Amino acid sequence: MASDDREVKELLGRLPTVEDGLDKKELFEQISIALSEDEQSMKKKKRLLPILSVAGIFILIFSIPFLLNTNHGKMSMETQDSANDAQIYSGAIESSDGTNNESDQVESMDENLIMDNSQIGVIKQVPSGRKIVHFNIFNHSRDYVIPVALIVPEAEDRDYHSEQMKEILYSYDLLQDEDYIQEKDLTDQKASFMLYKEKYYVSLPQDSKTIYDALRMLQQINPETYLENTINPSVDFKVTEEGELLIVQFEIGTLKVEDITTQMIDSILLTAKSYGFSKVQFEHIPVEEIGCYQFNSPIEVPVAANPILLQ
Amino acid sequence: MKALFNNFYEKYHHDLYNFVYYMVKNKNLAEDLVQEIYIRIFRSYGSFRGEASEKTWAFSIARNVIYDYFRKEKRKRNYANQTVDWDEMASIVTIDQKLPDELLIEDEDIQLIYRLLDECSLNQKQVIVLRYIQGFTLKETSEMLDMSIGNVKTLQHRGINKLKKLYEDKKRKGGMKDGFR
Questions:
Q1: B123, A12: Cβ pair inside 8 Å?
Q2: Contacts of residue A262 in chain B, CB cutoff 8 Å?
Q3: Is the pLDDT of residue A181 over 80?
Q4: Rounded to whole angstroms, how far apart are CA atoms B2 and B18?
Q5: Between chains, do A16 and B100 touch, taking CB under 8 Å as contact?
């Protein structure tokens, strides 16, 4: 199998460098023309400033869910090297203050939206002044659920079954059919958390199984579905329960550095939470940390998977 | 502005173009998208505070331009009432692609792997392109894609596995002579 990997990688490495047909000077001229047209159109747009400001706020509201997903991703996955992220994301937020032009504002939010769309995450704690409303999206055969944690202002009491809510879920490609959405907190129902389309955590109910069986489920490969395993099938481990602490001890030598991902840790923590554990201790793990997870002490389970912030 | 353009062009143009090209596999389209990347670089250079490297920043813009393009294509499809999965987009926009001259002289296995790239999801594909075609390190790739190294490893593992399986299947069935082309 390893040699096959090598063959594919070697073939990829032999793909040629492609030369473009762009003349440097011509390219510069085209860019200059485009930028100057941009300036002209911005002057015209100034008259529409009030209207566009409202539109900008509207877009900001709808983009914040994605921002949270990312910020949360940073919270749970990356504590170091956040300068790059801060540059990219804070740039977008600042541009919404109204000092820059509207098209830049819309564009910046748009960029955040895309980047966030490629990320998945968990939320470690509820921000102050906010509460979580849980939604669950079922697949047609109802054998798995995508839990969504909608984070709303604490005082908010509007009807979250609104069309607006559904639109947001549609925009995430999460909702295909309104009959398959349910508002209910299922975070304490025993389940295994796998990956769905590489973007979201999906919950597979495991009522009759032990935590060990539920974690083993994370290694299963389901080529027929969009579900993806988060633990490499070749990894061996055992579990010990000490009250609300779950100890996951990996068999030495079976867990390789390249197997360890934040998704693996997230999914183990989410699965443990659903079985009532508050902390998980990882043992015989061949790295000291990944993202913000440090393995020298028990790690608290997150509050929920797939968070979305709504203003 | 010219000095800024020269700086980016000399340092990153080649890598940016190849990244964009292998993501969309269409020379004319890649040229248009590269132009858009430069436009966005100039528009927002004032807000670039140097906390990320220029290269990381330029690639994050490139990635956004590519994703914008795919998303627009998806919207068009949806507007025409064609249900399309996001992960299928890479193959949708390259249906009528032609092989670049550089590939015409290469052997069939390389052409096969080139075609199979479109079977990967966009996220897998961008990691494969940066890691194995352009030869960037895990750390560089994670910075350019604004992903954790763990995410990059996962995507690269899944992408390579997918390519390996498809490559083996195609080879077993006789390469590209089974109508794959």
A1: no
A2: 148, 150-151
A3: no
A4: 23
A5: yes
